[in-house]
Amino acid sequence: MPVSRSLRLVLTASALATLVAFVPPLSSAEERVFDVVGPFEIGGLDPSISGFVFQRMQITETLLEADAQGKPIPGLAERWTESADGLTWRLALRQGVKFHDGSALTAKAAAAALDAARGKPGVLKQAGIESVIAEGNEVVIRLAKPFKPLLALLAHSSTNILAPAAYDAEGKVQKIIGTGPYRLTLLEPPQRLAAERFEGYWGAKPEIARTTYLAAGRGETRTLMAESGDAELVFQLDPPSIARLKRSSSLKVLIEPVPRVVLLTPNSGAGATAPVEVRQALSLAIQRDGVAAAVLRAPGTGATQLFAKNVPAWHDPALAPLAYDPAASRKLLAGQGWTPGADGILQKDGTPLRLKLLTYSDRPELPLIATALQAQLREVGVDVEVAVQNSSAIPAAHND
Known about the structure:
Layout: E1 9-12, E2 15-22, E3 33-38, H1 47-56, E4 64-66, E5 72-74, E6 77-82, E7 88-93, H2 107-118, E8 129-135, E9 138-143, H3 150-153, E10 182-188, E11 192-197, E12 210-215, H4 219-228, E13 233-235, H5 239-245, E14 251-258, E15 262-264, H6 276-284, H7 288-295, H8 326-335, E16 339-340, E17 346-348, E18 351-352, E19 354-360, H9 365-378, E20 383-389, H10 393-399
Parallel strand pairs: 3-12, 3-13, 19-20
Antiparallel strand pairs: 1-15, 2-13, 2-14, 4-5, 6-7, 7-9, 8-9, 10-11, 11-12, 16-17, 17-18
Helix pairs in contact: 6-8
């Protein structure tokens, strides 16, 4: 893999998506509330912050969606065209779609929502959009240069389409008014929301009448809620909890590999990790197969490159695999002037090689991986402080 200024150290080549479903006694779906418990807090109303929660709870929708192979399929837009030069995309909206406040979905409303989204942190910033306008029943997106992944971005939760009444005069989201099969009835950030079936939904009506979402940051809490029947669905659990829940006859554990990688992103712009050789040394000190087997209990998923074999369109079988070589790591660090101190920690000009590793507990495996990295890097003389913070600390550090 070419080394660039923004080198990312790939730790595990794939991750396991875990769902635990409570199997309740038979009763009518109308009589029960379907309770979902996950790790992700509702950090704010704007789709760029917590759009994932609103989209996955089927309160909000996007112009496009994606099928199981990742290909774009119709969402609120039922068809689309691309100009010959790749600079103009036209998306024709479904007819008869209503927002939860009773107002109609129009091209003007959808264009305004996308225009607001591209001004916020989110994926649309990558597309080089020059304008988003409405022409008849079509949303027209004009680009500065061709950008083939645009359709994928329009399925992302940060591009949720909200009603005009959801925004204030400055374009800030004040309410969640979507088009999904469920209508928001309660919102208590950062932890809880409730929703009920939206009878005016344009598509197939859901059988479950009411649902809730609760953000529980600790994996142990989610595990206990699954065991006690306090939730019908929980997700993102640590490997020990999964093993425990598999033994329960009242629970169904669903595990599926997904094309996700765990990345360590060193500061390439300043500090001890600015030289590419130091970042290469960190990479060589990581025993990926050991982390995958011992921490994630998923042997064989240690990364060999950025993309694993389960994403064959991007995996390069000819690429030399990422290596674990502590001796080579120490040699690179020595070449940068880092020598062992009395305590075994490398130092240069009297300054020890101490790094701070930020992570978060929304994904319960991350602090465990961070602790393993702390021990592995200590073996080559790097002192690492692990700081478990909110997930927002990661993009904030990237932007610093």
